[in-house]
Give the backbone structure.
Amino acid sequence: MKQHALGPIVMLAACFLLTGCDDLLVTTKLPPIQDDRVMGVWANPEDPTDLGIIGKRGDGYAIRPQEPGGEPTLFTLSRAGDALFAQIEEKCANHVFSFRGDSRTCYQIVRLDFDENSMTFRQLDPGVFEKIPDVNVEYRVATSHPKRGDSVTCALIESPGPELLAFLASLPSDSYKAGTRMLRKE
């Protein structure tokens, strides 16, 4: 059943968790894969001293900020069609879909695109749901309006893995917003 609308990075990890922009959340963890292109030291092109270091951790990866004592951000990779995605586990209650006592786990999905020496993180444009006439996944789109004056829109997909993978694989590249580009440091 479909539900419709309800109403410079400091570190590489900020691309995932502190974007301040639209998020795609899912309740089904996609099958993890390995793609070591993500490993290495990455720099913000606008501030080359702003570095993040990605290494393997368990069945996934960890982004470790260069600063001592910085907490790593854990993520796994998954593939849907030709697209590569990072998925970051977090509590659904951290987002606009939260309700009192919500203990569900969500996975923030971010598309990764690679060029020669760069990696770009791209968020799904939640407006894509209005552009696709027959979306074959269960979803909700909601917007929060925090006191600081800006709004954040999230899309939550609650479909099983095969339907979710088929949906993500079917999305054209222009379904994603321009993203944060990081450069590989040698």
Remarks:
- The first strand starts at residue 23 and ends at 26.
- The helical segments are 12-17, 128-131, 161-170.
